[in-house]
Amino acid sequence: MHGELAELVALAAYGSSFLARPADAEPPELFPAGSVFRFTNTVEFRRRTRRLAVIPVQHLVGRACAPWYADLRRRGATAIRLGRGDATPRNRELASYIEAGFSGGLDAAVVVQFGDGRRELWSGHWAVTEREHPEQRIWCVTFTGVSTSETLFEGPTLNAAAHRLRAALDAAASLAAGRPYFGNWERVFRDALALLDSESPSVPYHPDLLPPERYGIESWRLLAAAGRAWVFGGMGSWTDVAMDDEPSYEPVTTELFDAVLDAVLAATNTRAESATSVHGPAPY
Known about the structure:
Blueprint: H1 3-19, E1 40-51, E2 55-62, H2 65-74, E3 77-84, H3 96-99, E4 108-114, E5 119-128, E6 139-147, H4 158-176, H5 183-195, H6 217-228, H7 249-269
Parallel strand pairs: 1-6
Antiparallel strand pairs: 1-2, 3-4, 4-5, 5-6
Helix pairs in contact: 1-7, 4-5, 4-6, 4-7, 5-6, 6-7
């Protein structure tokens, strides 16, 4: 799965689980031990406000996840979700599935709902700051929160997302089938399809992406399939494929991209209070 998207998924999922727990519960800490921050050396959370409704002010909330979660609860947060929308800062000059191959290219962000009706949009900015880090923790990420009145798309139901992703993967696999040098791509799409029916789905590279006590197997299946189907990137990716003779390539790829993100949104935002976990206890 896209590394930046994985961080946003984990922030929203563990945050939702935290807010559902008693008020005296300890906030989870995902950094630096969580798999989503494996290549990250620094995390900051900053909130933008306006003094006297005019002067921009930026508040440092914390340099870890737990202080951010604690601050949200203290300020009356009631829900943390993942969303997509035009309010999220990103370059919009390229097709969405191409732009996703660049840092900051996704239109995804964390949306925080407060009890008094206020909403905040938290988006990330990633920068390479330590190229020679001995543990490959080359990235620094700053999550910035701003008040918003924009409506973000938070995904369909689990069933609708699974149906759309299955159809999109079938179309992509059929497009790759029988073409010279495309056998590996067909296997990727078929593997992702198989994960939609797996009894023990695991998200590639991120087995701790969701807190297991809150999410059931349907969410894990969607995220595992979406993770395997993430073929959008730079050189060597499906997006880099030359298929000029095939007019269906662009619509099939566009639909696959949106279906994958639908799956991620649905899996992250669907509440499962009595989830039958396919994983062990939460690591945080």
